[in-house]
Design brief:
alpha+beta, four-stranded antiparallel β-sheet, globular, disordered N terminus, two-stranded antiparallel ribbon, about 20% strand, 6 helices
């Protein structure tokens, strides 16, 4: 119980830090393959400079082939591409051992919290947009579920459809490094959605 209490305090402190200058700076970066800032350590406590080779990025481009004909198909490609990027970036940053969720996992090396995940996913989405891989969506600001209304504070990356403006959460926090994120309507996510098998996260 005491460990849980301190884990909760840790999570609240990290969540409060989500509006800090470091996360804001990283979210407003103009990432390139030669340099992108990667958040880890919980609440972007650490920032590492990462680069991607053309060969690594070619794997991401391949996730969008053949070109999507619908927004739904593009969301599937986005999920696949983010999983690939986590698999590539994880070993470079020591976060390839990241486990889904936060509670009970904070002691493991390479653990990311939801603020790290949301910030890094937004960076990946911006790279996809710059390379003209996204035709039906564009990334927008991260969103946070309200404290107490739907459990503990939780933050996600978000994409918006170019036509109609529908917003979707792109949330990789629930899953281990390298697994595709969940991509669901933002309102569904705001209402406290979580994987049925991970109700305790």
């Amino acid at each position: 119980m005491r460990r849980l209490f301190f884990s909760l305090l840790w999570l609240v402190a990290i969540s409060a830090y989500a509006d800090g200058n470091v996360i804001t700076r990283v979210l407003h970066q103009d990432p390139t393959l030669e340099h992108l800032d990667f958040c880890n350590g919980g609440g972007c406590a650490e920032v590492q400079a990462v680069s991607l080779t053309k060969e690594e990025w070619a794997q991401v481009q391949a996730a969008f082939e053949p070109a999507a004909e619908t927004a739904e198909d593009e969301r599937k490609s986005i999920g696949h591409a983010i999983a690939l990027l986590e698999q590539v970036v994880g070993p470079k940053t020591g976060t390839d051992t990241d486990r889904g969720g936060t509670f009970g996992n904070s002691g493991y090396p390479g653990q990311l919290d939801c603020n790290d995940e949301a910030t890094n996913t937004t960076t990946y989405l911006k790279l996809m947009l710059k390379d003209n891989l996204l035709h039906f969506h564009h990334p927008i600001d991260t969103k946070t579920r309200a404290f107490f209304f739907n459990g503990w504070p939780h933050t996600t990356a978000v994409i918006q459809e170019n036509v109609g403006g529908k917003k979707f959460a792109v949330d990789s926090w629930f899953f281990d490094n390298g697994e595709p994120p969940v991509i669901i309507p933002l309102e569904q996510w705001r209402n406290g959605w979580r994987p049925p098998s991970k109700e305790s996260l």
